[in-house]
Design brief:
Blueprint (H helix, E strand, L loop, with lengths): L17 E4 L2 E10 L2 E9 L8 E4 L8 E6 L6 H8 L9 E5 L9 H17 L4 E4 L13 H4 L9 E5 L2 E6 L18 H15 L3 H4 L3 E6 L6 H4 L6 H12 L4 E4 L6 E3 L10 E3 L12 E8 L2 E8 L4 E6 L1
Parallel strand pairs: 5-6, 6-7, 9-10, 10-11, 11-13
Antiparallel strand pairs: 1-4, 2-3, 5-14, 8-9, 12-13, 14-15, 15-16
Helix pairs in contact: 1-2, 4-7
């Protein structure tokens, strides 16, 4: 009752099922001691005038899967809105945020201004979100509270999900500089985070859930491969840690971000065991204003389309 941000974890939901929900909140005006609580008004959706919100859980089986990936919005809610204005979210199973939706995390109010308000207006009331943290989202005085807004499994920003016969793997690269870089003031330990994910990969890539999937999608913010083309620094420890494990698995595509420009690295060009597709982001003075990636699986066919905020198609290909 002393919090203004609430997360409700609903258990026992069935896969591939439509659910409806409403939100109500009752004010606690005072709570001076354990036996004395004074309540105020209850606010919420007008049940007589407004339809309930709805969502659909991920199916346990089936060959259909369609989702959208957004990345590197950096607080430009207008760019997010333009990217999504032609999207029919009723046809999507989920939306993936692939990092750096904000430039830093300073407050809850800032998160809503940067992209949460726009997302709620566009799709978030009824479309599930998978969240991959970017390096900028590790920065800021409110960064440790980011998980309160995206309460994933065990408080982690990485995980493995099944949508029918498609397996989606999310990885958290952490920061793009060493832990002892001066600007972090000794507060980072992303080395441990990456080692934890190596152990996670060693287990999950052998699991029945992963092996029985027909298609496999890898999503992470900072590129694991392609450093010669995408960024110029020499700090990319995730490659040495994770690449040997990922090379043994059969992924169809790696959807990545971070570089702020759209790119394609074909399989094997930079030691990458799968095609790597990088989404763009609002540039710092150039013409590019971001991209969105739409991936659709229909039967055995897996197709990826990348488009800009102006609706221009940058890539449309089978995987």
């Amino acid at each position: 009752a002393g919090r203004t941000l609430h997360a409700v974890r609903v258990r026992g939901l069935q896969p591939g099922t439509d659910y409806r929900y409403r939100i109500f909140s009752q004010e606690v005006q005072s709570w001076p001691d354990v036996n004395n609580v004074t309540y105020g008004k209850t606010v919420g959706a007008d049940a007589s005038r407004r339809r309930a919100y709805g969502f659909r859980t991920f199916p346990a089986a089936g060959s259909g899967c369609s989702f959208l990936v957004l990345n590197d919005i950096h607080g430009k809610a207008d760019v997010l809105t333009r990217l999504c204005k032609r999207v029919d979210f009723s046809e999507l199973g989920f939306v993936a945020f692939n990092g750096d939706m904000s430039s830093s995390v300073e407050s809850g109010e800032q998160l809503f201004k940067d992209y949460l308000d726009a997302s709620a207006a566009l799709f978030a009331a009824g479309t599930p979100i998978l969240f991959t943290r970017g390096n900028h989202e590790t920065r800021g005085v409110f960064a440790d509270s980011l998980g309160d807004y995206f309460p994933g499994r065990d408080g982690r920003f990485y995980g493995i999900y099944r949508y029918g016969d498609v397996c989606i793997l999310l990885l958290d690269c952490g920061e793009d500089k060493p832990d002892d870089f001066w600007v972090y003031y000794g507060l980072n330990d992303f080395t441990k985070l990456r080692l934890d994910q190596k152990a996670f990969l060693e287990k999950e890539l052998k699991s029945k859930e992963f092996k029985k999937a027909r298609r496999h999608i890898l999503i992470n913010h900072i590129p694991i491969w392609g450093d010669k083309d995408v960024y110029t620094d020499n700090y990319h420890p995730w490659t040495a840690l994770w690449s040997p494990l990922l090379e043994k698995a059969k992924f169809d595509v790696n959807l990545t971000a971070h570089a702020h420009f759209f790119y394609v690295i074909e399989k094997g060009k930079q030691g990458n065991p799968m095609p790597c597709i990088g989404g763009g982001g609002p540039s710092m003075g150039g013409k590019e204003v971001g991209t969105a990636m739409g991936l659709q699986k229909n039967g055995d066919k897996l197709r990826l389309r990348v488009f800009g905020a102006d609706g221009r198609t940058l890539l449309d290909r089978d995987l």
